[in-house]
Amino acid sequence: MKIPRILPAVSLALCLAACGALPSAAERREAAQALASQHGWQQERIAAGGFDLVAWRPARYAGSAPGADDERLTVYIEGDGLAWLNSTQPSDDPTPGNAMALKLALAQPRGNAAYLARPCQFTGTAAAGCDPAYWTGRRFAEEVVAATDQAIGILKRQAGARRLALVGYSGGGGIAALVAARRRDVDLLVTVAGNLDHRAWTALHRVSPLAGSLNPADAAERLLQVRQRHFVGGKDAVMPVAIATAYAERYPPGQRPEVRLEPGFDHRCCWVEAWPALWRGLED
Questions:
Q1: What strands lie across the sheet with 186-192, from one edge to the other?
Q2: What is the domain class of 8-283 according to CATH?
Q3: What is the CA angle 212-7-139, rounded to 5?
Q4: In angstroms, rounded to a whole number, what is the distance separating the alpha carbons of residues 92 and 241?
Q5: CB pairs under 8 A, 24+ apart, for 268-273?
Q6: How far apart are CA 19 and CA 17, in angstroms?
Q7: Are 190 and 166 in contact (CB under 8 A)?
Q8: What angle do CA 28, 79, 99 make, to 5 degrees?
Q9: Burial (CB count <10 Å: 0-12, 13-18, 19+), residue 247
C-alpha cells in the first residue's frame, strides 16, 4: 500500500529514528511491562481468532473504591502503535513507544479495568497471525475485530463482569466501536482521539484508503442504543474533530453521540493527566 505523504505521528517516529531516540521493540515491550507491574497488573496472552493478543489486568479484579461498579469491566484498546517507518515502509513491529491506552487504563480512578493490545503489539512479530497488513491497510479487518471481540469476552469472564465499557485510543477507538456494534453487553463506548471514520481520515490526510478494513462509521445503526462519548483534542492535527463529526453525522438528528472537544489537548497531550477527572465526568 503506497502512502503519498507521511502523517504527523509517523513524521515524529521518523525524527526519533533519525536521532537514534526510537526505542527498540524489546525496549518498548519492557517499558510497558514495567509500567503495568508498578501498578500490580499482570500480563497474559490470549489466543483469539488466529492471533495472540497481549492483555494486562490487575492480579485481582476489584473496585478501587467503596461503591465502585464492579459488575462492569472497562476494557481499554490500544491505538495503532508504530505502524509505518516512512511513506512506503511498514514498521517491522507495531508495538507502541507510548502505550497511551495502557496509561489511561492505569489512570482510571475506580472500577474494574483491563487493557488489550492490538495484533502483534508486545508479542514480537513471530507470533501467530502477524503480518504487516494487520497494522497497515487491514488494521480494522473483520478477523481483527472478531479476535478482539473474542479476547474481550475472555477478559469479561475472568473479571466476573456482567457488562462492558469499551475505551479506545486513536485507532483503538475504531476497533472499540466495531466490537461494540456486535455485542449486546456494552453499555458505554468511549473514544479518545479516536479514528471513527477512516474513510474521512484518509481523505483528509490525502493518504491511501485502508483497503480491507471495516469502517466504524458504517456501524452507526447498530450503535444507536449504546451510550457514547468521543473525546477530541482541539489541537489534534492527527485526528481532528472533523473525524468524530463525520462519524456523528451518520446518526439521525437527535440521536447523535456526544463529541466532547478539549481545546488545549492534542493527539497525546493531556489525556492521561486529565483522565481521572474525565472518567468521573462519565459517571455523572
A1: 41-48, 51-58, 112-116, 72-77, 163-169, 186-192, 227-233, 258-262
A2: alpha beta
A3: 25
A4: 30
A5: 268/98, 268/100, 269/233, 271/100, 271/104, 271/169, 271/192, 271/193, 271/231, 271/233, 272/100, 272/103, 272/104, 272/107
A6: 5
A7: yes
A8: 30
A9: buried
Structure-block grid coordinates of residue 221: 445503526
Q: What is the pTM of this model?
A: 0.92
Lookup: cell for 42: 499482570
**Contact, 201 vs 243, CB < 8 A?**
yes
In this structure, the chain runs to a length of 284
Measured distance CA(214)–CA(145) in Å, rounded = 9
User: Residue 54 in contact with residue 123, Cβ under 8 Å?
Assistant: yes
pLDDT mean values, one per 10 residues, the chain (284 residues): 42 42 92 97 96 94 48 97 90 97 97 97 93 97 98 96 98 98 98 98 95 97 97 98 97 97 98 98 83
